[in-house]
Write a structure and sequence with these properties.
By secondary structure, this protein is mainly α. 66% of the residues lie in helices and 0% in strands. It has 7 helices and no strands. Helix 4 runs antiparallel to helix 5 and helix 4 crosses helix 6.
Length: 188
């Protein structure tokens, strides 16, 4: 009997991560239908449908403009040898925002338009990064940026570099020795 209880607990533990997703899949359409009914009752059927199409067109335009801006920022960061994780995260949020705006509904449109606000994306980025750092076992170490070898980021890693010159200290007898006793040759 205890094995069955343990098996049930393990199954419930595995399902605990899926339950919020299932809840959202069920709850979001129900809320959207309710909002459609309410807005449709206030402004009518055709204006409601027109608003849905207009928000999709506006969202596509915003997605294009801000998406290109994020791509440009990522290119600048790469050219400077910096990590461009912020731009990748912004790109993912913009992709999600675009999906929300293309999904018919007023609630999803509201979420989509909110994600187009850069300060809100910054807050989300910092919050999600803090959650990842807090609840995961991720360690990121970098020896600098790309390209010129300069140190980048808020906490650059100190690397020991040994720099030196050399001088041929073999005496003249060894230098003339053809048995390989001296340092001779050319590097081409």
């Amino acid at each position: 009997m205890t094995q069955i209880k343990q098996w049930v607990r393990e199954c419930l533990a595995q399902l605990s991560g899926i339950v919020p997703i299932i809840f959202l899949i069920i709850a979001v359409p129900i809320v959207e239908i309710g909002v459609f009914i309410k807005v449709g009752g206030m402004i009518g059927l055709w204006p409601t449908i027109a608003v849905i199409f207009v928000t999709a067109v506006i969202g596509a335009g915003l997605l294009r403009a801000q998406g290109l801006a994020v791509i440009y920022q990522a290119q600048v960061a790469m050219a400077q040898g910096k990590m461009f994780l912020a731009q990748v995260f912004d790109g993912l949020l913009l992709l999600f925002a675009g999906a929300m705006l293309l999904t018919p509904g007023f609630v999803t449109d509201g979420v989509g338009f909110l994600l187009f606000i850069p300060p809100l994306r910054n807050v989300l980025r910092r919050s999600i990064a803090a959650l990842i750092i807090r609840y995961s076992n991720i360690h990121i170490r970098s020896a600098g940026g790309f390209g010129d070898g300069s140190e980048s980021g808020p906490n650059p890693v100190n690397i020991s570099v040994i720099d030196g010159d050399f001088e041929d200290v073999t005496d003249d007898q060894d230098a003339g020795n053809k048995d390989g006793g001296g340092v001779e040759g050319r590097i081409e």
